[in-house]
Amino acid sequence: MPATRLRDAGGGLTLALAAVPLAFLALFFYYPLGSILAGGLTEAGGRFSLGRVARILGDPYYLRIIGFTFQQALLSTLLSVALGLPGAWLLARYEFPLKGAVRALTTVPFVLPSIIVVLGFVRFFGNNGVLNRALMQVLGLSEPPLRVLYSLQAILLAHAFYNFPIAARIVGSLWSRLPISTEEAARSLGAHGAKLFLRVTLPQLSPALLAAGALIFIFCFLSFAVVLVLGGGPRFSTLEVEVYRLAKVSLDLPAAGALALVGALLSLGFLWIYLRLASHSSFTEELSGAAGGRRLAELLARPAGVPALAYLALLALVVLAPILTVVAYSLQARSGWRAGGWSLEWYRRLAAPGGVYLGAIRNSLVFGGLTVALALPLGTLLAWWSARRRFVGAGALEAALMMPLGVSSVILGLGYLKAYQGLPWRLAGSWVAVVFAHTVVAYPFVIRAVSPVLRKLPGSLQEAARSLGAGAWQLFFRVELPLLKGALITGAAFAFGISVGEINATLMLSPPGVVTMPLAVYRLIGSYNFAGACAMGTVLMLACFLAFLAIETLGKEPRA
Amino acid sequence: MSLRLEGVKKGYPEFTIRLDLEVRPGELLTLLGPSGCGKTTSLRLVAGFLRPEAGHIRIGGQAVEGEPPHRRRIGIVFQDYALFPNLNVLDNVCFGPAVQGWERGRARTRGRELLSMVHLAGYERRRVHTLSGGERQRVALARALAPRPRLLLLDEPLSALDAKLRQSLRLEIQAVQRELAVTTVYVTHDQEEALAISDRIAVMREGRIEQLGSPEEVYRRPASLFVAGFIGQANLIPGRVLARDGRLTVLQTALGRFAAPAGGRAPAAGERRVLFFRPEAARLGRKAGNRFHGRILRREYLGSQVQAIVEAGDQRLVLSAPQGPGKEVLPAGGRVEFAVDPLACWLLPEEPASTTVG
């Protein structure tokens, strides 16, 4: 068993290997988070008190915000799962041309920065967006018919866009592993159609449905940029946005801390539920897809094929339309859809030497690279360490390591500000803090990518290598590392994509002169320079697309 | 309820399945063949998971090839059990009656009845994942039979189990099948299992039935070299027909002249045939009948018997003899003489047969 191997390899070495990442996390995650929580629980004099929290829980304004955070997260989750379910079915049970491409599309929202989604939505669904313009032209209207933006619908739509592929992926992965013979047994016993689905398939899918639902709920609960921009005001504000507003606009750090405490406890609770549910399905999981693939052509020939085809078309439209809109709009000569034709004008402006935009691109790439350099060894060591250990509380340790998934990076940024404000060197206001925050946000994804592969390595493999004379280091570098290569590339690509697209902590932490690509997009949207925002957004997407390409082409597990 | 396959056809890149077959009411018929011979596909055609390109499938005289699986009223037992993991044992067994709209009390009575028939009374509330492989397969059998299917189909039901369990479970399947007298098609690649359990065996090869007959016929009087080689061990000695001698035909081979009965059309003198006999038909020291002698190349002790590879002329023959206590039979390296009763021999055509015998 793997558990015994460690002792031979020398417990001191492994402990040392684990100590460095744990120290990093202690300094740059647990301590800042703790100081936020503590700050919410102390009065001005430094005395312990529940007063601040009580005031928040007694204030109808904040209660409404908490309620709305729940409401939008729940509705977004239901919508995402409902939209993802047919996709899961098609991916799991059918073979069709371009299936690889469709499956790849489900990865896109993962690496697409939220600010791009926001931008794409504004330009596609907005009053002056592609959809409304097209409808006005076709229907001969003088007013935009669809008023989607700055409403609950806009938030739900963006969250569904973002998350339904997660549902399709997690549920589809389990679905493709369900033996087809169970379904056939049910059919031979007289069940078919809805009865078959509700009695046999759905109960078997329920672990994945719950896990996907819980994860999506967390993402929507913590969603920031989407709510900040698409919600468009205090009417549709969530906990995250309110914490940000209190800390950066009202400059009321103690109140922000108390609200962050409430938010963090809630989201960590959901994370705990998710981790309990998700032990069997992970969102970076590959769809095996091979099981019982019927040809899609057979389905499309039947009456049921029409909705299936419509769904695939909708999927392509919903995923691709906002992205293509951003690209197309960035190539407009003037900031507007009217005349002028195509031009690279906005790209020329981005490339102006010494300009803020070129600096933003450089900063993002540097931060991304540094995040990979930190998060990859950090996540790999922790995954290796926790996969090898079987001890009491291993589950608690794993939950502790996954905690950043359940803490918004707005709150993390706030924690840095609070924990390190007393230092002579202003860590909290420097770009180093941005990189550290990105690392903390990204490393759980590295663990998620590496852990399943590590756990799947058969014990006999190590025993074989050991019996042939390989020491612990040789075992790792000659046997385990080559087998982990795909997972490591996936983890690195996720880390890069997350860092390059991250806006929440960056917004909280970056010093005035330091701009990243998402920040630049955000500010350009804020000044209604949409063409510029789209050009910057396209460059950002390109960076993310490279990460996505790495995941899809290089990040495959070696076949056992 | 009888099952008839009439000109059923389904094309695949490797070969085309063509089936004509009648399974009699209450009979247990086995489709036996190597993997990839089309036996499971044939079963899936009957079940309705696949549609034939031509031909009719009749259950009790009624054509069902256009019906979806859930209307065919067929019970299926799968190799991987395919139990519903979200339901307990009794709910699994009652699933069929429940979805077919039986009244609840009646369905549960029926479920308990079948569980006790497969000796799982008391297991009603158990979760499926707490059962052993053998128990799961018995639940699967009970589940398939609960809604009183017109046909029972078993697809390699014992392949996932170990040897001891396979033997006891196949007795149990046979007992339940006899008791309910349900017409059954059983798919397996295990010839011993097929010989033990079947009323009749259809040996399949590349989508066609090569021979259909009782286990004894298929074992003792194979219709082709393929059947002879697939079921058990066979000695095959090619030769040319010399003459007829009453009910026997005399064959001239490199090892001498041998007499044996021939199936089907009586062969004419000069035609090529292959002499066939089983290893256990050899009698050591016996002088009458078809006589052979040779040198023992290798000897294997198999517990109840000893098996030897004997070099006779340019042929290698296999023979087996019961192992007596304390006496060494068939010593390696020694010479051996034995004879085979002509009636235990059989003449086969040299080319693989394409016509159905039996």
What can you tell me about this protein's structure?
The complex is a heterodimer of chains A (560) and B (358). Chain A has 560 residues and is mainly α. Chain A contains 26 helices and 2 strands. Chain A starts with a helix and ends in a 6-residue tail after the last helix. The N terminus of chain A is likely disordered. Chain B has 358 residues and is an alpha+beta fold. Chain B has 2 domains: 222 residues, Rossmann fold (3-Layer(aba) Sandwich), CATH 3.40.50; 122 residues, OB fold (Dihydrolipoamide Acetyltransferase, E2P) (Beta Barrel), CATH 2.40.50.140. Helix content of chain B is 23%, strand content 35%. Chain B is built from 9 helices and 20 strands. The chains are: A mainly alpha (560), B alpha+beta (358). The interface between A and B is medium-sized, with 19 and 29 residues.
Helix and strand topology:
The complex is a heterodimer of chains A (560) and B (358).
Chain A lengths: L1 H8 L1 H30 L10 H8 L1 H34 E2 L3 H7 L2 H4 L2 H12 L4 H10 L12 H26 L2 H9 L4 H30 L2 H7 L7 H11 L3 H25 L16 E2 H6 L3 H26 L14 H6 L5 H33 L5 H9 L6 H11 L11 H26 L2 H9 L4 H30 L2 H6 L7 H10 L3 H25 L6
Parallel strand pairs in A: 1-2
Chain B lengths: L2 E9 L4 E8 L4 E5 L6 H9 L6 E6 L2 E2 L10 E4 L11 H5 L1 H5 L4 H14 L15 H13 L5 E5 L7 H18 L3 E5 L2 H7 L2 E6 L2 E6 L1 H6 L4 H6 L4 E11 L2 E6 L2 E5 L11 E6 L4 E3 L5 E12 L3 E8 L2 E8 L12 E6 L5 E4 L9
Parallel strand pairs in B: 3-8, 3-9, 6-7, 7-8
Antiparallel strand pairs in B: 1-2, 1-4, 4-5, 9-10, 11-12, 11-14, 12-13, 14-20, 15-19, 16-17, 16-19, 17-18
Helix pairs in contact in B: 4-5
Q: Which features characterize this protein?
A:
heterodimer; A: 560 residues; mainly alpha; MetI-like fold; 2 domains; two-stranded parallel sheet; 26 helices; 75% helix; B: 358 residues; alpha+beta; Rossmann fold; OB fold (Dihydrolipoamide Acetyltransferase, E2P); six-stranded mixed β-sheet; five-stranded antiparallel β-sheet; 9 helices; 23% helix; globular; disordered C terminus
